[in-house]
């Protein structure tokens, strides 16, 4: 299939927040070679990468080229009790999870129902229910923006951390991910330590049962972007020094806090927002979700500028009460 080019494209339905956006030029590419040769012709034009649009804040007008990698293929290479799964950037993440889990492969079942495409998964090292992409990622293949050169890198080179990677840091805007290789196994053990997952599955569950339980919990907790615009968690859980967490715990003994290996402490942004009385708060076109305070929702009719102003008010209230700074999770296009 040849690249598909559209001018003045409406992207309102191409982002899960449902923000209105018109893009000057949108190009869909279907293979790594197509992408590499296109990149060589783009020169210095502004380039935006758009996959599933579930972690992006789009402006009213997006100048330059918006590139959508549609590399939609995957296959499994058996290696004894393990397998390497080779996946194109355009594959829907949740469909991959369910396909592998239903075939009895362990590894990514806890990451079911995360929206978006595989190519964006390494950007913020997607994670949920105690599992992160970095736990199963073997390597990433990418195209360099400046030269069109193709390179494969081991996962260890990607600088993964909590919702972090070099793709968001020094490689931002410089590379386009085209393929991932994941390692899955026939001999995994279910990871049921988060929330009430364990009570939702029987004894010795198969990967599919775990994935289905995760979907069930997520459907109960999170708004469906098809019904109510959102980008999942709008803020990262803040990480603070142990002394700061200790002082907060004295004032708020019920505060959830998770000690990290480096001695710092991760707080629950949703709890902090909730404590400020903001759960369910609505102003204009935007609101804090009434079941999950970490999720900001778009009731329709708003735009990116209004959303950012609303989010600033939420983080200002948290900073005022707890002295903790919230960092935004979705990225600005
Ligand atoms: C309801 C809901 C629940 C969510 N739950 C979770 C969760 O539990 N855990 C979690 O981690 N995230 C969660 N998210 C956030 C989001 O789903 C993930 O970040 C996802 O990986 C984004 O994929 P996408 O294809 O939509 O990326 P997009 O939003 O299209 O892009 C995200 C970023 O990646 C860049 N990008 C996209 N494709 C490429 C590429 N091929 N190469 C390089 N850069 C690229 C974009 O330019 C942008 O900066 C949730 C979102 C929603 C709406």
TrEMBL record:
Q: Where in the cell is it found?
A: Cytoplasm
Q: What is its EC number?
A: 1.3.1.98
Q: Write down the chemical reaction(s) this protein catalyses.
A: UDP-N-acetyl-alpha-D-muramate + NADP(+) = UDP-N-acetyl-3-O-(1-carboxyvinyl)-alpha-D-glucosamine + NADPH + H(+)
Q: Which residues cross the membrane?
A: none
> Which cofactor names does the annotation list?
FAD
* Signal peptide boundaries: none
Function noted in UniProt: Cell wall formation.
Under what name is this protein listed? UDP-N-acetylenolpyruvoylglucosamine reductase
């Amino acid at each position: 299939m040849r690249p598909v080019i559209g001018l003045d494209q409406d992207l309102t339905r191409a982002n899960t927040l449902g923000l209105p956006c018109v893009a000057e030029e949108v190009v869909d590419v279907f293979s790594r070679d197509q992408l590499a040769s296109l990149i060589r012709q783009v020169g210095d034009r502004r380039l935006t990468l758009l996959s599933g649009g579930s972690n992006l804040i789009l402006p009213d007008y997006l100048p330059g080229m918006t590139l959508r990698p549609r590399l939609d293929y995957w296959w499994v290479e058996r290696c004894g009790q393990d397998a390497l799964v080779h996946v194109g950037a355009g594959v829907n993440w949740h469909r991959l999870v369910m396909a592998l889990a239903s075939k009895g492969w362990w590894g990514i079942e806890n990451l079911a129902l995360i929206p978006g495409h595989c190519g964006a998964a390494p950007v913020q090292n997607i994670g949920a229910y105690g599992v992160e992409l970095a736990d199963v990622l073997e390597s990433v293949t990418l195209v360099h923006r400046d030269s069109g050169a193709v390179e494969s890198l081991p996962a260890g080179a990607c600088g993964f951390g909590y919702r972090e990677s070099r793709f968001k840091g020094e490689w931002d805007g410089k590379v386009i991910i085209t393929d991932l290789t994941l390692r899955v196994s026939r001999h995994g053990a279910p990871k049921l330590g988060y929330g009430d997952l364990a009570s939702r599955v029987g004894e010795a569950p198969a990967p599919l049962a775990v994935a289905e339980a995760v979907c069930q919990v997520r459907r109960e907790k999170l708004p469906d972007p098809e019904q109510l615009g959102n980008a999942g968690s709008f803020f990262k859980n803040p990480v603070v020094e142990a002394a700061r967490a200790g002082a907060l715990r004295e004032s708020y003994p019920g505060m959830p806090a998770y000690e990290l290996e480096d001695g710092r402490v991760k707080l629950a942004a949703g709890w902090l927002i909730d404590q400020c009385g903001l759960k369910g708060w609505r102003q204009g076109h935007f609101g804090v979700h009434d079941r999950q305070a970490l999720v900001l929702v778009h009731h329709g009719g708003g735009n990116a500028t209004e959303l950012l102003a609303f989010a600033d008010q939420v983080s200002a209230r948290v900073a005022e009460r707890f002295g903790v700074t919230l960092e935004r999770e979705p990225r600005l296009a």
